[in-house]
Automatic annotation (TrEMBL):
Span of the signal peptide: 1-17
Organism, as annotated: Oidiodendron maius (strain Zn)
Name of the protein described by the UniProt record: Alginate lyase domain-containing protein
Pfam families the record matches: Alginate_lyase (PF05426)
GO cellular component: periplasmic space
InterPro entries hit by this protein: Alginate_lyase_dom, Chondroitin_lyas
Amino acid sequence: MTSVLLFLLFLLPFVSPFLHPGLLVTDADISRIKSKLELNLDPWQSSWAKLTTIPYGQPDYTNNAVSGVYRDTANGVTENAELLWHDAAAAFNLGLRWKVEGKAEYAEAVAAILTAWGEKLENFDEGDDQYLITGLQGHQLVNAAELIRDYTPFVQNGMSTFTAMFERLFLAKNLYFLRHEDGSEHNVKHFFANWELCNMASVMAFGIFTENSTLFDFALDYFKTGIGNGGINNCISNLVEEPGTGKTIGQPQEAGRDQGHTGLDFQMLGVVAQQAWNQGEDLYSFNNSRILQGAEYYARYNLYNDVPFVPYTNGIVSYDIISDASRGAFRPTWELLYAHYAQVKGLDAPWTEKYKNYTVTQMGGFEGGGGSWGEGSGHYDGLGWGSLLYHLDESDVAAMKSANPSSVSDVGGRSTTANVPQTSISSSAVFASTNALLSDVGSTNSLFTAAATVSTTKSASPSRYSVVVSPTPDTSTSVVSSSHVPVVIVTEYVYTCG
Ligand SMILES: *[C@@H]1O[C@H](CO)[C@@H](O)[C@H](O)[C@H]1NC(C)=O
Ligand SMILES: *[C@@H]1O[C@H](CO)[C@@H](O)[C@H](O)[C@H]1NC(C)=O
Ligand SMILES: *[C@@H]1O[C@H](CO)[C@@H](O)[C@H](O)[C@H]1NC(C)=O
């Protein structure tokens, strides 16, 4: 009655190189998009038609690079931040055209935008608003750069200019902010969750782009244990019982403030979790899928249903009731959350599904992206294009669920064709498949022959089974540094009852 559906192997980045492109878009995503476009299927076709006709998707797009970017008119400067967010959106859109259409002119256009900013940018607002730029536009610029990491002229001429600027102006501030070193952070929960989430997304993106596992790990760790409001347990601050079903849903930290910013939290949680997922780290499932618990709460309330609200106070703000300001706000992120939780994971996500449908309807048939669905900062907080990048149809889901393990697709992390029946998960089978993967990435494969402990956990859902392997690494090989022991490999088997 059971058959192996998927066999995913999650490797920490020090074992295998980082995967590229591996931020919000992978090669698997690009292949899927291409195959849908060949067949003129929607929502991909409509999304693509839009992306390729807006000004922010044209190869002759002219960058707007300047030396100072300001969100606020204060301290004698004039607000001009749209110059950067327009360029970041154009760079990402053109990067997608490079991956899908393969013409050098698109990659060249992205390189021109990123290099121009690398050469000119010097400063941001003096006040706190600078941290919105470093987070929101930070993660976007790196996502664009990641898409042309395979374009040699950029790698040879522009990438180091971009990277040096980013490290100095964005990354340094991302880290300063998340370490609560700014004077305005007299209380570590001073800033609402979205401020930290976007800065986490930026650090993580840059860590992956530059293959810096210290940065990648910093972002993962902040997500799991961060003491500010970007830490997931603070971001989805209270667990409550859903009326009628008794299910546990999660009250978001910004729910008493307004729904527009709360929606931004889910948009940024999606970015953080998907970037990590594409490197084999599953933040989506962290703490009982806390992101999903929050998404279900948000979607239920924003579709005009009641939710319980626990009075919230953090020393800076207090809310006794949930806010109905901007109730029903939508942003492109629900395709991603729905596809991941309901389709990839097979979890129950009824409100998330409804909110995905609602968002798609509100946006005219597909989730738009930067430059396609309106002006103003909120339309450019994230890169969007969720229907193009993440929508899965029945054939995609069926392919994932195929009982034939040799057709397992790479849905995140590394996949292997190993066929391990549920009844006989054994350490030797895990070692064999792990070693097969390691030889695949060109490293030595004696790591996992050493003694290891294997623990298996059957999760609440009867169809899921995880295996955690903590092998004793062979530190004589060059791929494992002593600073990274112990190696922990999480292998996840997903079964279906047929
Ligand atoms: C990773 O990033 C940190 C923070 O910028 C830096 O100190 C460190 O040198 C980087 N590591 C590598 C290997 O580049
Ligand atoms: C999961 O959430 C609960 C409730 O917020 C918290 O007490 C617990 O520490 C969290 N677990 C982890 C691993 O973060
Ligand atoms: C969402 O939309 C899809 C496609 O139109 C439809 O098949 C599905 O039933 C809808 N789901 C809900 C919960 O309304």
